[in-house]
Design brief:
By secondary structure, the protein is α+β, with helices and mostly antiparallel strands. The chain has helices spanning about 10-20, 20-25, 35-40, 75-85, 100-115, 155-160, 180-195, 205-220, 235-245, 270-275, 285-295, 315-330, 345-355; strands at about 5, 55-65, 65-75, 85-95, 120-125, 125, 130-135, 135-140, 165-175, 195-200, 250-255, 260-270, 300-305, 335-340, 360-370. The two termini are about 30 Å apart.
């Protein structure tokens, strides 16, 4: 039973790479298919600014003439520059329930990264922590929300059997009550008396200026987080251009202290609930399904919430939580996922616990020493 792993070189190979998950998740009612058109753009060096500073190679595994797995080998030069560590990544890992296929895929990435001089193979990252990342290890019964991954349970067994070790866990918290906790209401009153804080919605008429403010906050607020790499200007503008299509301005908040930008929060409607109905295709009829089911979305994902270090512990985050809670309930959302949060972000995890949120999914990033 021969297993052949080969790089993606043609348009046909790329489509086989993109569409392989449909084989893995056939009959799985929880998985949400990605939009094929978005995946084609993501893997396009002309359209994805990641390729301006880094590189990735996609691989397919074929067993007995049939595609049995896929993986990406990733060299993120920005990560190497920022963290001064020779870490390469694997991502977009999908495989049939056959460990030998996984082993071949991991060995292929291992060799690719070794040839690049890397000392650690880390993942899954697709392509970085600014994209989707982490392997789901708990919470398989819950569908993935917007911009979060999903995978079968046996992936963990394959990864750990190969020799990967835990590097970091990422938590997804859930709030599914419509009444803000009394503790949050008390906190809001205290914060309002403490400092000259103003929390406002994003002004879509001044979108370009607002994006500059948010970019500065984002790259500053997360700079000391484990594994974080600041986005380049091109990457940030590319991301915000895509998010603009689904963003609700009332759920994008900017916090100011004495008129100075101090933090921001972004919650997105869980568009995955509608995307699931399209089976990955917008044309010819998928766009109508997307528009129809988008009206029935009942959940949010709080995707980022950050405050510049100099303005922390003042209570801006308390106002962000309150305003998002209040707006979400007003708009008919009955649940919100707050994801992801590093397991060692003790302050934020404690705050979410105090808000009566609960950890309902856990994702893991693994490391493997390259020999």
């Amino acid at each position: 039973m021969s297993i052949d792993v080969f790089p993606v070189k043609t348009k046909r190979d790329l489509m086989r790479f993109i569409k392989f998950p449909w084989d893995v998740y056939k009959g799985n009612e929880v998985w949400v298919p990605p939009l094929i058109s978005e995946m084609k753009s993501f893997f396009s060096p002309e359209k994805n600014p990641f390729y301006k500073h880094s590189e990735a190679e996609l691989f397919l595994a074929e067993k007995n003439g049939k595609i049995a797995g896929r993986i990406a080998a990733i060299l993120n030069n920005e990560h190497i520059r920022v963290h001064n560590e020779k870490v390469g990544f694997f991502g977009f890992y999908e495989v049939i329930p056959d460990y030998e296929v996984s082993e071949k895929l991991f060995l292929t990435v291992h060799q690719w990264l070794k040839d690049k001089g890397m000392k650690i193979m880390r993942g899954p990252d697709n392509f970085s922590q600014n994209d989707t990342c982490g392997l789901l290890i708990e919470g398989f019964q819950h569908p993935p929300v917007v911009m979060m991954p999903y995978n079968p349970e046996y992936y963990k067994e394959h990864i750990e059997k190969f020799g990967f070790k835990k590097a970091m866990d990422l938590y997804a918290w859930l709030i599914d009550n419509k009444n803000p906790p009394e503790r949050l209401l008390r906190g809001v009153e205290i914060v309002k008396k403490r400092a000259n804080i103003n929390v406002r919605h994003i002004n879509m008429k001044k979108f370009s200026q607002e994006v500059e403010i948010i970019k500065d906050i984002y790259n500053s607020a997360w700079e000391k987080n484990w594994g974080f790499v600041p986005m380049t200007d091109d990457e940030f503008y590319h991301l915000t251009k895509n998010l603009k299509k689904i963003v609700d301005p009332e759920l994008v908040l900017i916090g100011e202290i004495d008129g100075r930008p101090a933090g921001f929060s972004l919650a997105l409607p869980d568009i995955n609930q509608a995307i699931k109905k399209t089976n990955g295709r917008l044309f010819p009829l998928g766009i109508f399904k997307l528009l129809w089911y988008a009206r029935k979305i009942d959940g949010l994902r709080v995707i980022v919430m950050g405050v510049k270090e100099e303005f922390r512990k003042i209570g801006i985050d308390t106002l962000f939580y309150y305003e998002t809670f209040k707006t979400g309930v007003k708009k008919g959302y009955n649940k919100a996922e707050l994801s992801w949060v590093l397991e060692n972000n003790f302050l934020m995890n404690k705050v979410l616990e105090n808000l009566q949120a609960k950890i309902y999914k856990i994702y893991r990033i693994y490391d493997y020493a390259i020999q």
